[in-house]
Amino acid sequence: MPLLSLIIFLPLAGALIILMMDKEKTKAIQKVGLIFSGLALLASLVLLIDFDPSNSAMQFVEEFSWIPALNVKYLLGADGLSMPLMILTTLLSFISLIASLGIDKRVKEYWFWFLILEVGMLGVFVALDFFLFYVFWEITLVPMYFLIGIWGGPQKEYAATKFFLYTLFGSVFMLLSIIALYFASEPHTLNMLELMAQRDAFFAKGMTFQMLVFLGFYVAFAIKIPMFPFHTWLPLAHVEAPTAVSVILAGVLLKMGGYGILRVNLPMFPQATEAFLPFLIVLAFINIFYGSLCAMAQKDMKRMVAYSSINHMGYAMLGIASMNAIGFNGAVFQMINHGIITGSLFLLVGVIYDRTHTRDIDAFGGLGAKVPLYAGVMTLACMASLGLPGLAGFVSEFLCFLGAFGPWKLWTMLSVSGILITAAFFLRMIQKVFLGPLNEKWSGLTDMNARELVTTIPLAALTVALGVYPKWGLDLMNQTMTSLAQLVTKQ
Amino acid sequence: MLEYSPLLFLLPLLAFPAILFGWRWLPSKGASLGIAVMGACLLWSAAALTSAIFADLILPYDWTVSWFQFGIYDVALGVHLDGMTLCMLFVVTLVSFLVQLYSLSYMHGDPRFHRYYAFISLFTASMIGLVMAENLLLLFMCWEIMGLCSYFLIGFWFEKPEAAQAGRKAFITTKLGDLGLTAGLLLIFTTAGTFSLNSLQEMVKLGYFPAETAFWAALLLFCGAIGKSAQVPLFIWLPDAMEGPTPVSALIHAATMVAAGVFLVARTFFFFEVDPAALHIIAYFGAITAFLAALMGTVPEDIKRVLAFSTISQLGYMIAGLGVGGPQVGMFHLTTHAMFKALLFLGAGSVIHAVHTNDIWKMGALSVKMPVTFITFSIGVLALCGIFPLSGFYSKDEILHAAAASGQWPVAALLFITAGLTAYYMTRVLVLVFLGDARDRERYGHAHESPGVMTAPLVILAVFSVFLGFLLHGKTWGGLVPVKLEGHHHEISVLIVALASSAIAFTGIFVAWAVYRKRVVDYEELRLKFSPVWSFLYQRMGFEHFWLFWAAASYRFSAFLAWVDYHILDQGLVDGWAVVTNLLSRAGGWFDRVVVDNLVDFWGWLTARSGQLVRGTVSGFVQSYLLYLILGVGLILALRLYF
């Protein structure tokens, strides 16, 4: 049974059904969306049972000829890198859809675009043919554009346009690189696995060729991650996007960049990677240090969390720049954990924004006694995000540091300071919002409702589970990361 | 019985969620569960320690189970028990048990009563985990979770802005030290490829671990201890931590958590041993901390602040003890100190409970009203001052003796002076709180002895404070702790040190007695006369300002970066591009409209004009065409003729 295709196209089927439904029947539309997204989640969990983590090769491979003239194939497969990201995607999509039950504006279109978005994201993580990969990559753009542009905040059009243009800018370079690879391969192919096997041929073409192609991909991926200085679309898009879309944006879309670097840049162009490594490590440090300092200065909670994403993806990049199995494990695990933790942070910021219509950190005070449940869940998420041991973020951050420390002592030592700054701004937020005397303005505030608990508690439980027993996450990726590390160091 | 040791960690750990979420269904809002669990742990530790001392236990005991893998590495969850850890476990479980018992009355009626017990349980679990951990990563995790509990419990009454602020300060300040500790872990793992303490010790012993790396690893680990054990210059959080409930101060900020830094150094002593320079450094850090904190302890009017400075000072003693005498000496003082400092804090809590103030100037003459508290508190004071034969005498003397014998005279001198200062400020507190006149008649009138559930822990701790030193002295805990630093440079008689330290302690007591009890000088006048010194000490010798300055500076820097990020990078460069693109596209549009389009139109116009011009010739008249024909033929002929 082609499980991968099934997972990808279940949301598409849902989207098509929704397209044919009466737009007044919002309840039914929501039901259909939840069912199909839920089925995708279930299917991905079934896949997880069949998945063999001790095998680093591609599994569940599906291959059909698509455009024979160009040797384009419909080629899917999953390994220890795609698998966790795929489950993260189905999980966060399902949770975001539950969180979207409160959306009452143009429901049909919203749910349609959301499911299409899920298709695109899932496709990116399992497509093994560059043509298909590029198609899925671009598919994610359009729904995101509408989701921010229609259901967003006051500056939604500006944010949506900026996001779209920024990403498209990167995609153009990626397309160029893909075409270059196509013509450099013999026979011409877009099959990623074959291209990887032919990487020595690229090296024979000279360093300049490798470096240019590397850069083309890197720009596209760096914008998505986002790496300094391509990060400025992110705070705006996160702030303007509706809660559920921010969750997907931070939780999944950013990971497409990290995934791309691990899937394409490193294994295909090891020599170019080697040459660019000093830049990668410095950029990772800048992301960590600069991102966290920028977060510290924010007054808007959502903006703060958005900047903290820059910081956290910096840890992942630090792990990637380590070029060893420890760092790669850390990087992928960090991406998963960041998805879970930042996803719940955005959901939680949404909870308070729905009630008070403000996200200004200074506007609150003393809410801890008023809404203890909310304060508890929020504190847990903040602690996880600042890397408290026992919660998921710690292990992955630590592994990123551990991997990078061997080759990059100075930059890793400097990056460790990110922990302190992150702690400083999260604790400042907790203090200003939850501690101190109660701001009487919010004396009528109500605690979290059932829907909000359903979306946040599973993520909180996962945060604790992966923090206490990281084996559940690490075992999925360890084998693949180990062989990737061998692949990138063996020239 | 040692195979049950993981339960010691797991039971309080599970009690945390059980109390936090299930308190409604538990007797006395969950406190019963916390106390019962801790009672069981205490019984186990007491039994284990006793059988260890009477040597029918095979130590060290190790037990590991695989935890998680990355790359080729395997991290194991492990328990390591030896004499030092068993002793530490006994201290932790005993104090935690007594504090929980005591809190039944002290925290009675608090709206967040169950949360208090939940976090005490989590704290104790992580402290036990830290003590038993065979693995640096697990130790570090427990270390940080303790920090989290400390944060929550300092800010337990978070409606008070000072409490909220103090919690954050503690977290951030200790985190600053933990940066060094983290770097140390990274360095150690990168060098050795393992976090297992047993393996590391083996590697260092056999010389597989480069000596220079070991030195740096030791210093980086010590950074963590500087933060957690409140050494100079990071001690500023501990006095503020007194905003938490007093039993918490007794457990976390006096007896156990703050001692974790000392324990860490003792546990990883094999790194410190490699290079004597590392030991000298920590000895100086400890001695300077002990001295400065003792100076600062002479001025506060808040009873808990005095005890906090005293804790810092005594932690400095322990660190110095590690530096000059090795783990046995440092840990001995840690053990005795845990007893009498917990006693002093709980005694102070009993007083605060009675008079509802922390200000020692509003107390006085309470010995009449609170005899049990007075007697036990006095025992604590005498033990802390190091008066023979109380426990503090033995442990302090071992440190002083080691310091004197090590030949590091500045360290020894500072520690001796500190002993005098300690006696001075503790006597000051004792006199002002319990003796003399009642300065606040109204508070005095309402004061009463605390209930049995509060005084019983005081009595138990007092008993330990009296006898523990005598019991453990010279026994090296049944020969369980092997490391005692060799190579003493100077033979110094134990008796001389004992006499000297006692003389200094009595001097301190005598001076304080003269000033505050006998009033030979007017202390108000004295304070005014030395007011610059007094306020310098009161403001914590500028350390506070130093760190606040850096905090403010980094905040300003972050605001500047955020400004750059928005205005320069985003609005300037990125949107600048958009503006440039926009302008270019307008220019292109203009060019297209004006130049290209007109050029196109010009072609049209040209064609039309030329068409018009030529059209005239195509008139349709045959005569004209004949005329053109003749003209043409004529032209051709003419050309032929001439060329």
Largest β-sheet summary of chain A = 2 strands, antiparallel
SSE run of chain B: HHEEHHHHHHHHHHHHHHHHHHHHHHHHH
Approximate shape of chain A: globular
Helix proportion of residues of chain A, in percent?
over 70%
Radius of gyration of chain B from the CA trace?
Answer: 38 Å
As a whole number of angstroms, the C-alpha radius of gyration of chain A is: 22 Å
Number of helices of chain B: 27
Largest interface: A-B, 59 and 52 residues
- Please state roughly what percent of the residues of chain A sit in beta strands, choosing from under 5%, 5-15%, 15-25%, 25-35%, 35-45% or over 45%: under 5%
Helix fraction bin of chain B:
over 70%
Contiguous runs where pLDDT drops below 50 for at least 5 residues of chain A: none
Low-confidence stretches of chain B: 478-487
Strand fraction of chain B: under 5%
First-to-last CA distance of chain A = 37 Å
Record the strand order, biggest sheet of chain A: 1-2
Shape of chain B: elongated
What is the terminal-to-terminal distance of chain B?
Answer: 132 Å
Number of strand segments of chain B = 2
Largest sheet of chain B: 2 strands, antiparallel
Helices and strands, with pairings:
The complex is a heterodimer of chains A (491) and B (643).
Chain A: H1 3-19, H2 26-50, E1 59-67, E2 72-78, H3 82-99, H4 107-126, H5 130-139, H6 141-151, H7 156-184, H8 192-197, H9 199-204, H10 207-224, H11 233-240, H12 243-268, H13 270-296, H14 301-321, H15 325-356, H16 367-370, H17 372-385, H18 392-405, H19 409-434, H20 450-468, H21 471-489
Chain B: H1 5-22, H2 31-53, E1 61-70, E2 73-81, H3 83-106, H4 113-132, H5 136-154, H6 161-192, H7 197-206, H8 211-228, H9 237-240, H10 246-255, H11 260-267, H12 269-274, H13 276-296, H14 303-325, H15 327-355, H16 366-369, H17 371-385, H18 391-406, H19 409-434, H20 441-446, H21 452-472, H22 476-479, H23 494-517, H24 523-529, H25 531-538, H26 543-615, H27 622-642
Antiparallel strand pairs in B: 1-2
